[in-house]
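Researcher: Last one for today. Full complex below.
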Amino acid sequence: MEPLDLDLDENELELPSEPMHLNMGPSHPAMHGTVRIVLELSGETIVKSDVQIGYLHRGFEKMCERGTWTQVFPYVDRLNYVSPMLNNVGYALAVEKLCDVQVPDRCQWYRMILGELARISDHLTCNGAMAMELGAFTPFLWYIKAREMVWDILEEETGARLTHSFGRIGGMAAPPTPALKDMCREALPAILKLVEEGEGMLLKNRIFIDRLENIGKISGPEAIALSWTGPCLRSTGVAYDVRKAHPYLKYDEVDFDVPVGTCGDNMDRFLVRLGELRQSARIILQACERMADDGPVNVDDPRIVLPPKQDVYTTIEGTIQHFKLVMEGAKVPKGEVYSYTEGGNGELGFYLVSDGTGTPWRVRIRPPCFPITQGLSDLINGAMLSDIVPTFGSLNMIGGECDH
Amino acid sequence: MGELKHVTLEGGASGTSGFATTKLDALLAWARKWSLFKYPFVTACCGMEFMALTSPRFDGSARFGAEAPRFSPRQSDLLWVVGTISQRQAPVLKRIYEQMMEPKWVLAFGTCASCGGFYDNYTTVPGIDKIIPCDVYVPGCPPRPEAVLDGLMLLQDKITKNATGDRRPGIVKPREDPVRDLVQLRKKDSSREGEA
Amino acid sequence: MSVRALEALKSKFGDAVIETHSDFGDDTAVVRAESWKEICRFLRDDPAMAFDMLVDLCGVDYPDRVPRFEVVLHLYSISKRHRLRLKARVGDAEGDGAEIDSVAHIWIGSNWFERETYDLMGISFKGHPDLRRILMYPEFEGHPLRKDYPANKTQPLVPYRTEAEAGLPLEKLAPFGIDEGMPFGRKVWRTERGES
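Model: Here's the assembly. Have a good evening.
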């Protein structure tokens, strides 16, 4: 008989063990809305994971087929709802590519300003939420305060804080207000100061660094194979930014850098977003210099743009044009087009198929965070349970976009 | 200044008055309404306004004693349904509601939670009241944080007055009717023109 | 501009390439569904093509055509910065027999895109490691993005509450009927049964 105090190796003990199945979500504080991750755990390590999305599927593509081309704008807003202006601009550019029109310069600068403001709001929310989920509640509140400043500008311009529906085919719903440039010039330094304060709290914090560095690492070729784009791809070292590679609007006339990471871990994604935030502020200030203070904002094409209200009430052509555009929709030429812009998470693409009528035949959105969420399984397999929180937070999966 | 418009509450379903009948009930209602533990069931864009609501600018919860979000249905008494509920999410919502203990209230934050919004399709539940009972509807897409504060205060009102269990829901409406104001303005303008 | 890609495809695959065009600046090639896998492998591996990123994979429904569905693949090359759209037509008039090879082993990123196309359109991908529904729930029957699936046909997982249960009227009528008050003007593809 062996003495009972002999040290037994765990492997020699024949204790049956099975992996534990744990369900995270779909209603979970760190799940950014609605994702369910079914985990198979061995102790604290994740053996297998199944990421299940679709809890926010709202039938965007089906709804677009039931209205006119302009009626798609409110739906498009609610895709990436933290940066709605970028979606508006992306969709408007897609339809304009199909109609073969180009909006006037003033509108291009205006779209850039509003788009970059939306991108700032996106990155503030993502970084703030990620910090909050790790326990750093204060930087989240500061970033939300900065986001309120951005939303104040957007509210003054578009009328709504969050889902503006401000883009139109051939221009914007209204011209820029006279106060836009001053508001931007006042707000941006205040926002950047808040971002710096938040950074000061986080980036030298031992806990924050330990939870983010070397976690969720992915290499450049792997990320490309997984169809990643945007800040997540740039954090691996691949410098692909649609604004630089295939410039649209006036991005080739402004001076900005593209922050690129080195090893593709969570810390790099966090830092890339902070860097992009600063570059967006740079772009906005340059665009404010360049944007003209007067001039048309909508393209002068009666087939796609609504006439001024004065004409609608006094001339018959205006009335008919307004009626046809609202009731039947702009008659976009037959064909198909794929148009892409740099959304908050990466390459936001719209594949439009038109049958020549005012109703879209097919509006397909290529959501940037759909392939990124696909890569989540690979990132968390082998990591520990608590690593899911910063990894998922740094990917910035937006439910409305991923599940469209 | 208009008052908070809500569904009138006198005469409950059982025929008794909707007011608390004992001092104990009043005390309990007071305690409950000033310490609501919320379960933020956040799904979509309204979540962004929810975050803004909890931010220092609007401070939509701390001054009501409702700041602590409890991410467990067993520990919360106010279910905030924030955002669109899809058919796939519906069993999850129902289960969470059933896991909460009485007394519990539900606040439908946003149009999608109140009535499905403009997602009239195969995948959206047209309003959470098709699945669970709802106490306050806050319309808006997304509602301004001030509207949600109105909704919270309306809920507090209902908690005070519904101590006997009348659960008719209330809807947050603008305090002043904007159409009425516009009509008044036009009348004033046209009368002035008539004089001039 | 990847007109060179179109030329290379035509010269290498001959009559597997049915047609090519570059409308609106997008280079497009329609190929036979049988050569889908070969062509994709060539496009990724050939050094002059180097399409290392799959940008998008989706399906489009043309119910008046046979074959009915079109599988549309968008490719991008990070090193060469050119794009290509590849299409193939599958499926008969009823929507059955829509099968095409999976490219999940060529571009790992196509995994979820193919699952989504299967879920919403009903196109199966042969050789896909895990072909199951992704956006809809497993109990859902049918493929919602097809033109003959009515947009507001719901299949609720949780049965809706009745008015008797709730004690209140639950129907929130939309202000218009199914044609949204506009029976003229807009042309929306109608199902055979006359629903839109």
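Chain A has a mean pLDDT of 91. The domain at 69-329 of chain A is CATH 1.10.645.10 (Cytochrome-c3 Hydrogenase; chain B).
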